[in-house]
Amino acid sequence: MSVAIAFLFCLFLARFFYIQVIWEDDLNARALDQWTREIPISAGRGNIYDANGELLAGNVAAYSVYARANAVDDAEGSAQLLSAALGLSYEDTLEKLTDKSRS
After folding, report:
1. Which Gene Ontology BP annotations are present (predicted)?
2. For the segment 22-47, what is each residue's pLDDT rounded down to a tens digit?
3. Residue 53 lies in a domain
């Protein structure tokens, strides 16, 4: 009986080793695929010109950043990083990150 338990334990350890060491790269790639995604950006719309060839309406690239205030742990640090990276006011960014009513 103890030999059977020892054998099963060895099988368990071998399987654990196989998953942790041999499959490591594959499992890391799968995990990354589950947590990241690419969002396709559709092509821009056509420009609108008047009869003289002057541009009336064109395309402008616009990006958005989203943060849930109730999920931010370090609002001051996050506001400092975001304001520096995005060229925004630190005070406005901090106010938006701490306003729990908007989340």
Report:
1. cell wall organization; response to antibiotic
2. 989 998 888 888 877 777 877 778 89
3. no
Residue 92 belongs to a domain? yes
Condensed to tens digits (0 to 9), the pLDDT of residues 56-78 reads 999 888 878 888 888 888 889 99
Amino acid at residue number 67: A
Global pTM value: 0.43
Class of residue 71 by CB neighbours under 10 A (exposed 0-12, middle 13-18, buried 19+): exposed
Measuring CA to CA, how many Å separate 64 from each of 10, 38, 44, 61, 86?
53, 15, 17, 10, 10
Q: Domain of 26?
A: 1-35
Domain for residue 9, yes or no? yes
**What separation in angstroms does the CA of 80 have from each of 4, 28, 69, 76?**
60, 32, 15, 6
Concatenated DSSP letters of 51-81? TTS-EEE-----------GGG-S-HHHHHHH
